[in-house]
Amino acid sequence: MKFRFDSKTHTYYYDGAKMTGVTTVLGVIAKPMLIQWAANMAVDYILKYANMEAVELTGNFIVTPPMAEQARTAHTRQRDARAVAGTSTHNLVECYVKSTIEWNVGVAQPHETDNHQLRQFVEWAVANEVTFLESEKVMYHPDWFVGGTCDLVFLLGGKKYVGDVKTSKAVYYEAHVQSSTYQEMLKAMGETDFHGTVVIHLPEDGKLQTYYNFDQETNLSVFLAALTIYRAKAMYGTMESNEKKERKQKKLTTN
Asked: Is 234 exposed, middle or buried (0-12, 13-18, 19+ CB in 10 A)?
């Protein structure tokens, strides 16, 4: 088989060459809210750890260089902690769905759990009489040279959907683009009769929300635009790297 997925490194290959991941491509789309969030994390860190005695006496914060360095990376620590929690929730959902497929032909069934997010997911699936068809479905599109893994393929009300589970604080538009891209990749692999996509939002604190999307054409145009930008940046990045190597080589030769 020409296509191969390395689960250890989460890397997709086609004819031995490494493919680009869907989420990597969508990374070129700016998220202004995340920029503000990162700035807020730095400020919150300083407010939390600054010398409060100095504030009371002088009205000024004392921020040491080590504190400033910690503030600079406060958002990455918060992001990584959320990523670990999100991975744990994804794993729980994956185990539930796979066991449901294996032992109950995919028909959602009640499941006792202390995990708040998984409990809401199970309650949603049972209440809507969901039938799971696939879990962690690996796919590719040879024409795009892109690989990906969708969380779910399922039936709801007799209609077939691609599902994506999000545990982040907010759901961004790219989630719909991502799900629509997966749907198109599955079609390229021979699967048919999709009705739409669903983003299932499972926040750490809060209630489960589902966001349905049926605008496949618009979402795909966004993904293909992002793919063009990603490939262009990669090309010019390689050109710049080669130019730097040439300049370095010339400098070594001159010296």
From this structure: exposed
Rounded to whole angstroms, the Cα distance separating 126 from 111 reads 10
Q: How far apart are CA 27 and CA 15, in angstroms?
A: 25
Instruction: Say which residue the tokens 């400033």 belong to.
Output: 68
The C-alpha atoms of residue 60 and residue 251 are separated, in whole angstroms, by 50
CATH class of 3-30+106-254: alpha beta
Residue with token string 């994956």: 94
Per-residue pLDDT of the chain (255 residues; tens, 9 = 90+): 589 998 888 899 998 899 999 999 999 987 766 677 667 777 777 777 666 555 555 666 666 677 777 777 766 666 555 554 546 889 999 999 999 999 999 999 999 999 999 999 999 999 999 999 999 999 999 899 999 999 999 999 999 999 999 998 888 899 999 999 999 999 999 999 999 999 999 998 889 999 999 999 999 999 999 999 999 988 887 655 555 555 555 555 555
- For the CA atoms of the chain, what is the radius of gyration? 23
Give me the residue label for tokens 């070129």: 28
Write the DSSP assignment of 61-115 as a string of letters: ----HHHHHHHHTHHHHHHHHHHHHHHHHHHHHHHHHHHHHHHHTTB------S-
Q: What does each C-alpha distance from 211 to 21, 159, 197, 220 come to in angstroms?
A: 23, 16, 8, 17
Domain boundaries, the chain: 3-30+106-254
pTM assigned to the model: 0.79
Rounded-to-integer distance, Cα 40 and Cα 243, Å: 38
